[in-house]
Amino acid sequence: MFMIFGIPGPLLFGQLLLGLINGAFYAMLSLGLAVIFGMLNIINFAHGALFMMGAFVSWMLLEYLGIGYFPALILSPLIVGAFGFLLEKTVVSRLYKLDHIYGLLLTFGLALVVEGLFRNAYGSSGMPYRIPEAFQGATNLGFMFMPNYRGWVVVAAVVVCFATWAIIEKTSLGATLRAATENAPLVQAFGVNVPRLISVTYACGVALAAFAGVLAAPIYSVNPNMGSNFINTVFAVVVIGGMGSILGSIVTGFGLGIVEGLTKVFYPQASATVVFVVMVIVLLARPRGLFGKAA
Question: Which residue, among 260, 212, 214, has the nearest Cα to 236 in the 3D structure?
């Protein structure tokens, strides 16, 4: 068995893989938060509950309707995104002109309601979600065995994250959306339905959370607490990357997942707090975050 810095190689690479997988979920969840905050200026504390809802919808499609993993990977974000669209139209749209604290409190309350409903219906123990046959087993990389499904999660997360970044930063649709957040009356004067564009943007941010929930379902048990287990760390990732920064959320999410994985190898006692220590250091040195823009 080969050693790296006195650590068995398989152990080190195994923890790096776990860190990369956690980083994939941090990146996708913080990306959805960054889209909603950067475009709509709403701190969406219900994001973890919507991540959990995505996993539950996928599980219900499988258990009740017999729909396979890949169709559920498409349908679940669409269903939860439609719920987000309705949520924005009926509730969230009333918060745009209010202080951020009102949005945070309202979405926090929504998260408690959604989690409570699923907890009452399904309990807190969680339900297993089987790995699809296409990704069962593991691949020998020479220095470690990588479970195929976990490799798929990382690849899917990278593709979705950078596709979202490209759409927002490099397309005319993204330019229109950014312009609408800066000067809605001017954009509307050019014939753009700004309220509908805002609703669709919120729904897309919610769908990103649901997509991450479907990916997470076979790895973690599908339970009402799975979102709340992630959300505090995800908010720290958003703050470190820069509130509203799309690229910052992606890079910081993956990076901090790897840092967390390495910490579990070299100093396990700090693994639960290392992300927040990094957040404090970054805020002291650069209050707007690593990729954030000056106000």
Answer: 260
Q: Tell me, what DSSP letter sits at residue 294?
A: P
Alpha carbons 25 and 85: distance in angstroms, whole number: 22
The values of phi and psi at residue 188, to 5°, are -65, -30
Length of the chain, in residues: 295
**What is the rounded end-to-end Cα distance, in angstroms, of the chain?**
52
Mean pLDDT for back-to-back runs of 10 residues, the chain (295 residues) = 57 78 88 80 86 94 90 95 92 81 87 91 85 86 80 92 88 82 78 84 91 92 86 88 85 90 84 89 89 68
- Residue by residue, DSSP assigns 76-136 as HHHHHHHHHHHHHHHTGGGGTTS-HHHHHHHHHHHHHHHHHHHHHHH-SS-B--PPPGGG-
What is the pTM (predicted TM-score) of this model? 0.90
Domain contains 65: yes
CA distance linking residue 224 with residue 281, whole number of Å? 32
Burial 260-286 (b: 16+ CB within 10 A, else e): bbbbbbeeeeebeebbeebbeebeeee
Residue type at position 214: V
* 39 membership: H or E segment, kind and range: helix 9-40
Asked whether 31 and 249 are in contact (CB, 8 A), the reply is: yes
Asked whether residue 175 is domain-assigned, the answer is yes
Which amino acid is present at 93? Answer: S
Which amino acid, residue 75?
A: L
Q: What is the pLDDT of residue 195?
A: 82
Q: Give residue 30's domain range.
A: 17-119+147-285
